[in-house]
Design a protein that fits this description.
The structure holds 2 protein chains of 2 kinds.
Chain A lengths: L3 H33 L5 H27 L19 H12 L14 H13 L30 H41 L5 H21 L2 E6 L9 E5 L5 H7 L5 E5 L3 H13 L3 E3 L7 H13 L6 E3 L10 E2 L12 E10 L14 H9 L4 E7 L11 H16 L2 E2 L13 H16 L2 H6 L1
Parallel strand pairs in A: 1-8, 2-5, 2-7, 3-4, 3-5, 6-9
Antiparallel strand pairs in A: 7-8
Chain B lengths: L6 H12 L11 E4 L4 E3 L6 E4 L16 E2 L11 E3 L3 H4 L24 H14 L6 E2 L1 H5 L2 H4 L4 H8 L7 E2 H8 L7 H4 L12 H12 L6 E2 L1 H12 L5 H15 L7 E2 H7 L5 H4 L7
Parallel strand pairs in B: 1-3
Antiparallel strand pairs in B: 2-5, 3-4, 6-7, 8-9
Helix pairs in contact in B: 10-11
The chains are: A alpha/beta, B mainly alpha.
Chain lengths: ~450, ~280
């Protein structure tokens, strides 16, 4: 029993020393650069090393597959069936033309018309454009996370060992480090903004508030090991404008706010989020809504307009899609923020899913599970493009303006531009779309009004 | 794939590959299963023959391997597990050169290739929100582009056999089989055995069933009116629609019963390029 005592103190000593070393490293290499906004470049070196390892792992798997003469499962992002982009009228005319020897182009019903709807329907059952945007993107090469592996039977011993090592590093080294950083970042944010809130309004308050915000968001960025590349920073949003971006996860906010000083818009939550929201409100004005106020569109528009018209207030950050999409496409922008009449600063965010998929599938994972998954991935790598500001032209209405901004964002980020509503994740599609299809078809049977008088 | 297998399976598989795939000496019958079937969770000594699909009437042919499925493979709810990830456990790949020994008569023609089955199964599981290996009508209606199709409900109905409201992967593939393109080398085949599901006649029969609401092998005036009403919505008046239906039946009807039978339907559409219009091509 007494022999254990010197061992005990040795273990305690070792523990104490390692903790001190860890915290010093943390402070010097992570927190201090975050405060001043500089970077040692450690994360980029880390990213390059990882890429090399992933490439080796993929080659290994491909070699294993070739030896056993098996086809590898390769996901195809562009769809699995060939779809022709012809319109309803063209298709039906073509079917009728091939079937009958009568005079063409007179609108008449044929029994063969059903082939068009039948084939279109089966095509969408096999592969449609909308439902696949609500689940995580599939990767083409393996990134040593078991959650993304579909070809694992070709793993050799070396790869398994590497994978095991990866698990050890991610869960035992990176995860505690990241949690410590996140904790530091959030508590500094709450404490810092509350302290700044006590200062009298003036230049000092603004200056301190801006830097407290930036510093804390930068610490949070490091807590996720997010490696962000900003492009075209001269187009950054100015006061009195609205910043719109495509939405993939709650992390988007941290990514944008670590490079610019924004006013947030959102619903007041309870719990930790609520504490952060109230603290941050003290330092500078944000726009928070009660749950009941969110449904009232006029009230929302009024408050946003008031905020935007005050040039001393910060640019608002809004995600017009309204829900998280999986970063392969941009879905319909809700027109509310485009009716206000302020300058819109579009921002495109594109994540590289190889290091960790940032998409939040809210029907599958809760917030805490999602954050844990984020913190146990390798890194979050993304590119942010600041696009030149846009304003509503006199001849376009809010919906057209929204679509114009959406196309610009999609083009820059290399995403598919869809007209479908992100709300289809949870709701049924409106009947008006079906009625449009029916109207289009009836024109091919009876023609337009002018033709009817002829028959 | 929406369901990657857990970490333990990776280790167990790498274990067997380390052992060099030693042959296990097992006895007992070889049960044929298809992707999506539920098998008992216990029983590591049972052997299974994982089957593919063929288009010749009966929908399966058997590859020559009989393999035990490791106990951790595909563990799901309760006491059953589901046959998934076809390609992971076949120890011998099925190539086009192999002639299926039974069930599938005539030259080998896989309905879809290995990778296509996997992709369609991946699609099936992503539609299956209840995760019980079958699709219901609601699962189909959740596809927005299908919900806006005027004949969406009729197409969904085609997947469900009489009186049932769940369809498993086998039934799903069976219906999709009608839309496989007709290959040239199949046209000159022997006439023994049942017709493939994607023949011109079967494709036309599929379309005929979309019109024939009460499944009595005749399209009556009422049925035609109802289907027309689905396709045009509120944009055409009843009288006009009625006259269109009358004209169509008049042109097609040859035996004077004021209804269109399947033979008359085929006759009307004899010049239409059915093979091209009712076929869906895979990209790979």
């Amino acid at each position: 029993m007494f022999l254990l005592l010197p061992f005990d103190s040795l273990v305690v000593n070792l523990l104490g020393i390692s903790l001190t070393v860890l915290f010093t490293l943390l402070l010097v290499f992570i927190i201090v650069p975050a405060i001043f906004g500089v970077s040692f470049g450690i994360r980029r070196i880390y990213m390059k090393t990882l890429l090399k390892i992933f490439r080796w792992a993929t080659l290994r798997i491909e070699r294993g597959a070739k030896e056993k003469n098996h086809p590898l499962y390769k996901p195809y992002v562009n769809g699995i069936i060939a779809k022709e982009p012809t319109s309803l009228e063209e298709e039906i005319k073509e079917i009728r033309r091939s079937g009958s020897s009568k005079a063409l182009d007179t609108p008449e019903f044929e029994l063969s018309d059903i082939f068009y709807f039948c084939r279109k329907g089966i095509e969408t059952i096999m592969d449609d454009e909308v439902t696949k945007r609500f689940s995580a993107e599939e990767l083409e090469s393996w990134n040593l996370l078991s959650r993304t592996n579909y070809n694992f039977q070709y793993i050799s011993l070396r790869l398994t060992v590497l994978w095991g090592l990866g698990v050890l590093i991610r869960y035992c080294f990176l995860l505690p480090l990241r949690i410590a950083l996140a904790f530091t970042g959030i508590s500094l944010l709450v404490v810092g903004t509350t302290v700044v809130g006590y200062l009298p309004n003036g230049r000092w308050k603004e200056f301190l508030s801006k830097h407290v915000h930036l510093m804390c968001y930068r610490i949070c960025v490091r807590a996720l090991t997010a490696i962000i590349t900003y492009h075209d920073q001269e187009n950054r949003p100015q006061n009195g404008g609205i910043c719109v971006a495509n939405h993939t996860s709650p992390i988007d906010v941290i990514i944008l706010a670590s490079d610019g000083y924004y006013a947030m818009v959102g619903q007041i939550h309870g719990g930790l989020m609520g504490v952060i929201q109230r603290a941050v409100m003290k330092a500078c004005p944000h726009v928070w809504f009660e749950r009941s106020e969110v449904k009232d569109r006029h009230l929302v528009a009024k408050r946003l307009t008031e905020h935007v018209q005050d040039k001393s207030k910060l640019p608002i950050l809004i995600f017009p899609e309204g829900t998280c999409i999986n970063n392969t496409s941009v879905m319909m922008f809700k027109k509310g923020s485009f009716e206000i009449g302020a300058t819109v600063y579009p921002v495109a965010i594109k994540y590289d899913p190889q290091f960790g998929d940032a998409f939040w599938n809210s029907s599958k994972y809760g917030m805490v599970t999602y954050l844990l998954r984020m913190m146990t991935s390798w890194a979050i790598v993304c590119s942010v493009w600041y696009l030149p500001p846009m304003t509503r032209q006199p001849e376009e209405d809010a919906v057209q303006f929204a679509n114009r901004v959406k196309s610009a964002i999609a083009r820059q980020g290399g995403l598919v531009d869809l007209l479908w509503d992100g709300g289809l994740k949870r709701e049924k599609v409106k009947d008006t779309f079906k009625e449009e299809q029916q109207k289009l078809y009836s024109k091919t049977i009876v023609g337009n009004h002018e033709d009817r008088s002829r028959s | 794939m929406t369901r990657p297998l857990p970490a333990l399976v990776i280790l167990s598989v790498s274990g067997t590959s380390l052992l060099g795939g030693r042959e296990m000496r097992l006895t007992g019958p070889c049960e044929p299963v298809v992707m999506g079937d539920a098998i008992p969770a216990k029983g590591a000594d049972r052997r299974y023959r994982i089957m593919g699909f063929c288009c010749r009437g009966s929908e399966v042919f058997t590859p020559p391997t009989c393999t035990p499925l490791p106990p951790l493979f595909g563990v799901r709810k309760g006491g059953t597990r589901r046959v998934e990830a076809l390609q992971h456990f076949l120890s011998k790949s099925v190539t086009f050169a192999e002639k299926p020994p039974f069930d599938c008569k005539g030259p080998t023609s896989l309905i879809v290739s290995h990778s296509q089955i996997t992709r369609l199964y991946s699609r099936f599981t992503s539609l299956d929100k209840g995760e019980n290996g079958t699709l219901s009508r609601e699962d189909f209606q959740r596809i927005p582009e299908l919900a806006i199709n005027p004949l969406g409900d009729r197409i969904i109905n085609a997947f469900f056999p009489e009186g049932e409201d769940q369809v498993n992967f086998r039934g799903f593939m069976r219906t999709l089989a009608h839309f496989r393109p007709i290959e040239d080398n199949e046209k000159s085949k022997d006439q023994n055995g049942p017709e493939p599901l994607n023949s011109r006649s079967n494709k036309l029969h599929f379309a005929f069933r979309l019109y024939d609401l009460d499944k009595d092998d005749k399209i009556s005036r009422d049925e035609l009116l109802q289907v027309l009403r689905m396709m045009v919505g509120v944009n055409i008046s009843d009288e006009q629609l009625g006259s269109i239906a009358d004209r169509t039946i008049q042109e097609a009807d040859q035996d004077g019963d004021s209804a269109i039978s399947f033979t008359e339907f085929v006759k009307v559409l004899e010049k239409v390029d059915v093979e091209q219009k009712m076929s869906i091509r895979f990209l790979h």
